[in-house]
Amino acid sequence: MGITMERKIRWGLLGSGSIVDRWICGAKQLNDVEIVAVSSRTIESAQKMAQKHDIPLALEYEALLKRTDIDVVYIPVPHPAHKKMAIMAMEHGKSVLVEKPACVNEGELIEVLECAQNNNVFFMYKIFSDDEQDKVIIK
Question: How confident is the model at residue 87 (pLDDT cuts 50, 70, 90)?
């Protein structure tokens, strides 16, 4: 007996760097993923990524986070910005997947986890081990 999804998980991308290319290629292989929008520090960069990968919308960060048709955001920005962007997303009701490291120190991580709990969303970060890619989910 398998698990079936009633609808796709709708993603917003808060960044448009080279790591996003690889993530998008992997995500497009999954049947339950829909990439709704991409944003970046500049709208031009977001537009280039959207055009390259046929993503419907290129938006500024705040506009992406205000959308009600996005369930989860992927944050592939330099790690000093993880806390700020994750909290901003979770305060908009979005669950978060962030690149490693999750935050720059324990204090920041505690703030992020408290924000996830207070907003009833999940925070997840990618880690890489020697042989396999794993995700750590914290709710």
Answer: very high
Interatomic CA distance for residues 32 and 133, integer angstroms: 19
- Helices 82-91 and 106-118: angle between axes, nearest 10 degrees: 10
**What is the share, in percent, of the chain residues with pLDDT greater than 90?**
73
Between CA 16 and CA 48 the distance in angstroms is 9
Q: 72 Cβ partners below 8 Å, 6+ apart?
A: 9, 10, 11, 12, 94, 95, 96, 97
Q: What is the number of residues in the chain?
A: 139
Q: Provide CB contacts within 8 A for 4, sequence distance 6+.
A: none
- Which spans in 32-129 are helix H? 43-53, 61-66, 82-91, 106-118
For 124-133, write each residue's pLDDT tens digit: 987 654 444 4
Neighbours of 98 (CB within 10 A): 25
